[in-house]
Design a protein that fits this description.
mainly beta, Porin, 248 residues, single chain
Length: 248
């Protein structure tokens, strides 16, 4: 009995050792790589801006405008934009008349996506080139711009600025509504002080065109392995050759 018991214990030990050393085959997980495609966007919007804070001499200093915006991204968190803004000839009476103002700007947006897939929230930063032209009367010149410009003259000034702000997109299938709040920082004319020169609020609508859509529209659904029908040679059916033997 003791030998049987010892043999049973030995058999169990050998069995456990065998299974513990046996390698278990595992199936490696298949890694699926998501191909990132570029996306283009083009849109139009409406602006409300103070245009140029040092120019304003009254409480009613807002100016309405229109904008065109182009966007580019690679499907990741960064999006690059180029924007043109044109303002509708505001007059800061009685100091400024016949004002013409516009700006070109380029920004980078860092996108945070909401769980619903529709909302995008992003801070933005970039540079802008701002153009201003207007007739300066010198009246109610609380900022003492007469130390820089002559009265009753047309003044033209162009300046570079740094943009900082925040934006929000509500995305549809192939388009989006957007809202942006931006401040432009630059040097105050005549004082050489860096300060906020402009505050702009924009709302608009933008269309999107992905890389796949671009190829489908402009290149068509052709496969690179298939030739057009016009280049395929038609098959000609040939009859098998027959041999005849002369019989006498």
């Amino acid at each position: 009995m003791r030998l049987r018991g010892f043999g049973f214990v030995l058999l169990m030990m050998l069995t456990s050792t065998y299974f513990s050393q046996k390698k278990v085959k595992t199936t490696p997980h298949k890694i699926v790589l998501i191909k990132k495609e570029w996306n283009l966007g083009i849109g139009v919007g409406l602006n409300s801006s103070v245009v140029y804070l040092p120019r304003n001499s009254s409480g009613n200093n807002g100016a309405a405008g229109k904008s065109i915006i182009c966007t580019y991204d690679k499907g990741n968190f960064l999006r690059f934009t180029f924007e043109y803004n044109k303002y509708m000839s505001p007059d800061f009476a009685p100091t400024w008349y016949n004002v013409s103002a516009s700006s070109f700007e380029s920004n980078v947006q860092y996108i945070t996506r909401f769980m619903d897939g529709h909302g995008y929230l992003y801070p933005l930063a970039g540079v802008s080139y701002n153009l201003f032209k207007g007739y300066f009367t010198g009246k109610n010149d609380y900022l003492n711009l007469r130390a820089v410009h002559q009265e009753s003259t047309t003044v033209t000034s162009n300046w570079f600025g740094i943009n900082v702000g925040v934006g929000y997109d509500y995305n549809l299938k192939h388009s989006a509504f957007y809202f942006m709040y931006k401040m432009r920082v630059g040097y105050t004319e005549g004082y050489n002080q860096c300060n906020i020169q402009d505050i702009c609020i924009s709302v608009g609508y933008r269309l999107h065109l992905s890389e796949a859509s671009f190829k489908k529209v402009f290149l068509g659904p052709r496969s690179r392995y298939a030739l057009p029908k016009s280049k395929l040679k038609p098959k000609v059916k040939t009859k098998p050759a027959t041999s005849s033997t002369a019989t006498n």
